[in-house]
């Protein structure tokens, strides 16, 4: 009888593996067939190797701050990168090509499959440099930006000038999901920018936020009582600047050096030069979990 039980267990895990692989393949096929894909990183390369994209270029991301571990866990390829809060990946600005999305009428979507530790602000991916030459911000996906009402939420950041938002000391121009990102659990984080509004999504779902008082905005010129606005969607008609940032995954350049390190796993990252619809993002989520 023991051999029957053993055989049954082996068959069960084999079927589960086949099912997971089929789901990974269906998700990858759907992502790659979605219009205006610029880049998809599956993060299935071994540690020490550049991570290459599928799409409009290979966009090789190189390890910085130490080796980036590959683990056998992830919704897109079955693998993911494990970031420990000190390491990250980067692509120099002069190699960004079609990732350098900017100019009048430009739109963008960043989608990532993340398992966040829940410990700190984490930059997922994009072109975002907060320090060099006064700031080279452009677009970026974050998890948890607490200073302006984005604590533990999916945050999509856009900048026209690359600089802080006057009269405030930092850039305030980001959407923040109504939902909180769970710790140590795979989820789909995404934001879209259609040229007028930034929207943040968790697991393919957009939930609007009512106008609210934004923390740390009182007492500035023109805002004696603080700024009241909606964080989702976030109104930002200024557009995307061409500001010269590198494309990074897992960290951004701050005054003190690299910071806002993502802690946890990233199982895939995709960039589109179009604002995807909620139905498209929901389809990704449905195929992911």
Tags for this model:
nine-stranded antiparallel beta sheet; 289 residues; 2 helices; 15% helix; 20 strands; alpha+beta; seven-stranded antiparallel beta sheet
Strand content: 25-35%
How would a textbook summarize the main sheet? 9 strands, antiparallel
Spans where pLDDT lies below 50 across 5 or more residues: 8-18
Order of helices and strands: HEEEEEEEEEEEEEEEEEEEEH
Description:
The chain is α+β, with helices and mostly antiparallel strands. Helix content is 15%, strand content 34%. The chain contains 2 helices and 20 strands. The chain has helices spanning 2-33, 278-288; strands spanning 37-41, 53-55, 62-64, 69-71, 80-84, 88-91, 108-116, 122-127, 139-145, 150-158, 174-180, 187-193, 197-202, 212-213, 228-229, 234-235, 247-249, 252-254, 257-259, 263-272. Strands 1, 2, 4, 5, 7, 12, 13, 16 and 20 form a 9-stranded antiparallel β-sheet that branches. Helix 1 (2-33) packs antiparallel against helix 2. It starts with a helix and ends with a helix. Mean pLDDT is 93; it is low at 8-18.
Give a quick summary of the entry.
The chain is 15% helix and 34% strand. The chain is of the alpha+beta class. Helix 1 packs antiparallel against helix 2.
List the topology elements:
Layout: H1 2-33, E1 37-41, E2 53-55, E3 62-64, E4 69-71, E5 80-84, E6 88-91, E7 108-116, E8 122-127, E9 139-145, E10 150-158, E11 174-180, E12 187-193, E13 197-202, E14 212-213, E15 228-229, E16 234-235, E17 247-249, E18 252-254, E19 257-259, E20 263-272, H2 278-288
